[in-house]
Specification:
With about 270 residues, the protein is α/β, with parallel strands linked by helices. The chain has two domains: about 5-80 and about 180-255, Rossmann fold, CATH 3.40.50; about 85-180, Hypothetical Protein, Haloacid Dehalogenase-like Hydrolase, Chain: A, domain 2 (2-Layer Sandwich), CATH 3.30.1240. The protein contains eight helices and 14 strands. The strands form three sheets. Strands 5-4-3-2-1-12-13-14 form an eight-stranded mixed beta sheet, sandwiched between helices. A four-stranded antiparallel beta sheet has the order 6-9-11-10.
């Protein structure tokens, strides 16, 4: 039976130490494709950033931008920005509280702001970033927001009233990032386009940002052996650590490398 595989990247497909795809995972992906399965990335990364990985890892399909971006057969089908009203409320509160902010208003590494307050408060971002700072920048005139960065540390986070207006993640303790956080929704979108049954989905992940796409009541979830405990609790299966051939081993164990042949219909002949 054809399955629809959705893979997280960091800590699932790739070795966190080298940032390279685990060799056995690469072999597993090719064997799944040869068996006729649908193979897809599912990442919170922005489309422009995830595209390089998609091509490098030889994926034709991808859910990106935290579930808001869909790439099918190498073509970007949609890349939905953040809810605008929620974004405006977050930025307004940040300004009122003297919290530095930066916003991504297109699908690129560019971030915009009206001053360098964010940089003064937390420093430069570790990822490659182009800063466009203009005192005449008016966030209220922005058409689309794709990400918002706030110089909001962990201690202040609980008192930020509009935090739940949008999905948020914290990869650095110094600042909070608002971005789409709906990997499950991205799977639903992709499966709707494909007109395929939800129960045939298989997801792979390792970290807290993968919790959203793990749901035993809907489909199969595989947690890597190096996954956080919270994800393991939601998983259907727990495999070996990703660097110990976790993806390959579970695929082989479950028989996913062998596409089950459909039964040929029996033919009835009527003699006249």
């Amino acid at each position: 039976m054809k399955k629809y595989f959705f893979f997280d990247i960091d800590g699932t497909l790739t070795d966190l130490k080298t940032h390279q795809i685990v060799p056995s995972a690469k072999v597993a992906l090719e064997k799944l494709k040869q068996a006729g399965h649908f193979v897809c990335l599912n990442t919170g990364r922005a489309h422009y950033k995830a595209e390089k990985t998609r091509k490098e890892f030889n994926f034709e399909n991808m859910v990106c931008n935290g579930g808001n971006g869909i790439v099918l057969d190498g073509i970007l089908k949609e890349n939905i920005p953040l809810d605008k009203q929620g974004a405006l409320k977050i930025i307004q509160e940040a300004k009122e509280k003297g919290i530095g902010y930066l916003v991504a208003i297109n699908d690129s590494q560019e971030v915009y702001g009206e001053n360098d307050l964010f940089i003064q408060q937390v420093g430069y971002r570790k990822e490659p970033t182009t800063y466009i700072l203009d005192r005449d920048f008016d966030y209220k005139q922005v058409e689309n927001f794709y990400k918002i960065y706030l110089a909001l540390d962990e201690k202040e986070e609980a008192s930020f009233q509009n935090k739940d207006q949008l999905g948020s993640l914290r990869f650095e303790k110094e600042y909070l990032m608002f971005q789409p956080d709906n990997k499950k929704g991205g799977i639903f979108k992709m499966m709707k386009i494909l007109q395929a049954p939800i129960q045939d989905v298989v997801v792979f992940g390792d970290d807290y940002n993968d919790l959203d796409m793990f749901d035993k009541d809907l489909w199969t979830g595989v947690a890597m052996g190096n996954a956080c405990d919270a994800l393991k609790e939601k998983a259907t299966y727990i495999t070996d650590q990703n660097v110990d051939d976790g993806i390959y081993n579970i695929c082989e164990k479950m028989g996913w490398f062998l596409m089950k042949k459909m039964k040929e219909p029996k033919l009835r002949f009527l003699l006249t």
